[in-house]
Amino acid sequence: MPNMSPKKVNMPEQEPDIRNKNFLEVALGYTPEMAQEEAQRCLQCKNKPCVAGCPVNVQIPEFIELVANGQFEKAYEKITETNSLPAICGRVCPQETQCEKLCIRGIKNEPVGIGRLERFVADWFIQNSKPNSKDIQKNGIKVAVIGSGPAGLTCAGDLANMGYDVTIFEAFHTPGGVLMYGIPEFRLPKALVQKEIDNLKHLGVKIRTNMVIGKVLSLEELEQEGYKAIFIGTGAGLPNFMGIPGENLNGVYSSNEFLTRINLMKAYLFPQYGTPVKVGKNVAVVGGGNVAMDAARSAKRLGAENVYIIYRRSEKELPARLEEIHHAKEEGIIFKLLTNPTKIIGTDDGWVKGMECVEMELGEPDSSGRRRPVVKKGSEHVVDVNTVIIAIGQSPNPLIKSTTKGLDTHDWGGIIVEEATGATSKEGVYAGGDTVTGAATVILAMGAGKTAANAIDEYLKKTL
Ligand SMILES: Cc1cc2nc3c(=O)[nH]c(=O)nc-3n(C[C@H](O)[C@H](O)[C@H](O)COP(=O)(O)OP(=O)(O)OC[C@H]3O[C@@H](n4cnc5c(N)ncnc54)[C@H](O)[C@@H]3O)c2cc1C
Ligand code: SF4
């Protein structure tokens, strides 16, 4: 008999007033007993609607049944048939718009906590298993992967498992992409990402850091070095700005710079790490996505008294995950919705002292289907802030495009690929993840890395 409780088994969390002063993980994970109780809420539907919502086709009811029976290692094997980074996906995937959105239990009550169960299984495996020393038949064929975010890591892992001699070229001094430099420690502990990277090294993948491809080496030079195929997974790390007066004042950050300095350079561990980030008493974060929530919650943890999310539409249109919005509110982040900045005001010596804003109201739907915000007449006002973080989106960096002949891109900068394979306009060169789609999700980047790995394998089998 399934567990017919209308609600998910509660996930233990740090208390809001404690966690908003530290960078430790917010959600603490299920115990085996909690996981088994939650797994028993699954009805084992014959037509598996939840699976259709998973971009990498995880066999959800099968793994959940194994959890319900206490067969955690087998559950891990089931998940990793199609998802190579379950500890990460269990934490950051937007399950509420994917698998859990289609869960039958969600029609009347809360859906099964698929993400929570995936996270439990992955964490259990990390704590209880020994590294797999499977014997891979090496074929000696060299493949280069540019970028070490989820797209590059997945592509590299799959190709290494097929026997290829894979080298990842990463611009930063630490691999992991947004998983390391963007998403904060309190949502995704970096030790978990490092564990996945170590697993790749264990498979024989070489990682060369501080290698900005397009500057240190071109794609042509990689080909001359004997790489028979190349995967580009360079993400979308170029921050967008609003183009309003005052964006060049001291105290204005792009979310990218702000979060990178915190995550990668460990600004929150100052003075142990000598790279602090200065946040004022009052901080405005412009934007309403996951990146904005991460920046706001990080600013609070760095000691800001008042942190505002400034967003020009209403709560309904906020693009961030519901869980992130809920957590941000619990931690004391103040939401100034239907508000749009028009100017950042500075002191005589060039530091932020306020932000001029207007109130908005929602008009007719625009081309995205969302109601267009229009300015309310006479609503100009000044918000008293000393730090402004701009989190209104990122675009692909143009460096590789501008240094590679014959690589076709869209006007907005994304690399053009054949959807089914990830093949670009340049023979032997494949691409996937945010550099193709624009800023998207971890699981979609992983899916693209997987697709490209299979296509590269077919291409090399045909041409060599
Ligand atoms: C703050 C933040 C929070 C997010 N939260 C979520 C979330 O909760 N859930 C979710 O699903 N998604 C989230 N996302 C989006 C998600 O992280 C991205 O969609 C995903 O990481 C894209 O993966 P990728 O491999 O394409 O690129 P990235 O992760 O961006 O990795 C690209 C890598 O390529 C490297 N690189 C760039 N140019 C070069 C070059 N020329 N040479 C060598 N290396 C290069 C970069 O340094 C980087 O390491 C978030 C993003 C951000 C920024
Ligand atoms: S839709 Fe929900 S209840 Fe049905 S199999 Fe999937 S997880 Fe279980």
List the total number of helices.
Answer: 17
Helical proportion?
25-40%
| Rg from alpha-carbon coordinates | 23 Å
User: pLDDT below 50 for ≥5 consecutive residues: which ranges?
Assistant: none
The coarse overall form would be globular
Number of DSSP strand runs: 16
Structural class: alpha/beta
Strands in their spatial order, largest beta sheet: 3-2-1-4-16
Distance between the termini: 56 Å
Strand content: 15-25%
Oligomer: single chain
Give the averaged pLDDT, no decimals: 94
Biggest sheet descriptor: 5 strands, parallel
Give an overview in words.
The chain is an alpha/beta fold. It is built from 17 helices and 16 strands. A 5-stranded parallel β-sheet has the order 3-2-1-4-16. The chain has a 5-stranded parallel β-sheet with strand order 6-14-7-8-9. The longest helix has 22 residues, at 442-463. The protein is globular. The mean pLDDT is 94. It binds flavin-adenine dinucleotide and iron/sulfur cluster.
